[in-house]
Amino acid sequence: MKSASAVTRLFVCTAQKDEIGKDVAKALKIELKKQGLKKLLTGGEKLKVRVQTCNCLDLCKHCKKGPGAALLMHPEGTVYGDVKPKDAADIVREHLGEGRVVKRLQVD
Ligand code: FES
């Protein structure tokens, strides 16, 4: 049986009034496919990446009170805020593809 850590989940909040999070989640899925990163090999371990929408992540300052959506990388724990659909490509390429946190979008 596979361990739970074999899946990286991107939880995207969709609790904004305009539900921009839905568009962010859609853009992330498209980028994962485009960049061929739905399945990753990191440190010899195979990882699957899934994008899921969710309710409030308690990061509202960088979500419904701002211009974009908040999202959480699970299980690793990085949190991004004010994410817009156009940021999806950078999150997928830099974070998932290159293993680097996208500093300009990271929030505490
Ligand atoms: S409304 Fe999105 S984090 Fe609270």
From TrEMBL:
What is the official name of this protein in its record? (2Fe-2S) ferredoxin domain-containing protein
**CDD domains tied to this protein:** TRX_Fd_family
Superkingdom of the organism of origin: Bacteria
